[in-house]
Amino acid sequence: MTVVKSQEYNTVIMMDDSFPFVTFLKELMHQRMLLPSQLAKEVGISHSTVSRWLQGKELPSTKSCRRLAEYSGVPLQKILSVSGHVPEIVESPADNWPEFREYTKKKYPDMLDDDLITLIERLIDQRRGRIHEGKDS
């Protein structure tokens, strides 16, 4: 466990080696095949800053998070979340969404008949690649 003093809020933060931001940085460097010094240069921060991040000794500022988001293509919200600036946003899995037929029956009970709903479902399945050459897969 590492004790870190956040410069922005002048507070002490306890981090262990599984801190998500460290994992994010290591994955980014691995994907781009970068050394810490190369990442620092490309993002526009000092090598010592990247080193402290990788050791879990310091958190990135929100400005650094923005630079990392622009560089990596990862949404800023995600980087702010893994760095501990904002709480993680949990998305509900698609499996919890109602089926299209259920949704249309509730939203448009008297407007859409079964034939039209079936047609729309087939178009959705085609878009998703579930139906090929007119045959169900």
- The strand line-up of the biggest sheet is 1-2
Number of domains: 2
C-alpha geometry? elongated
Low-confidence stretches: 1-17
Kindly estimate the percentage of residues that lie in beta strands according to DSSP: 5-15%
Estimate percent helicity. 40-55%
**For the CA atoms, what is the radius of gyration?**
23 Å
The number of distinct helices, counting runs of at least 4 residues, comes to 7
- The tally of beta strands, per DSSP, is 4
**CATH class type of the largest domain:** Mainly Alpha
Give the overall pLDDT as a whole number.
78
Q: The CATH topology of the largest domain, please?
A: 434 Repressor (Amino-terminal Domain)
- The CA-CA distance between the termini, in Å, is 51 Å
Q: What's the name of the CATH homologous superfamily of the largest domain?
A: lambda repressor-like DNA-binding domains
Query: What is the CATH architecture annotation of the largest domain?
Result: Orthogonal Bundle
In short:
With 137 residues, the chain is mostly helical.
Notes on the protein architecture:
By secondary structure, this protein is mainly α. It has 2 domains: 2-82, lambda repressor-like DNA-binding domains (434 Repressor (Amino-terminal Domain), Orthogonal Bundle); 94-136, no CATH class. The chain has helices spanning 20-32, 36-43, 47-54, 62-72, 76-82, 100-107, 114-128; strands at residues 2-6, 11-15, 131-132, 135-136. The strands form 2 sheets. Strands 1-2 form a two-stranded antiparallel sheet. It has a two-stranded antiparallel ribbon with strand order 3-4. Helix 2 crosses helix 3. Mean pLDDT is 78; it is low at 1-17.
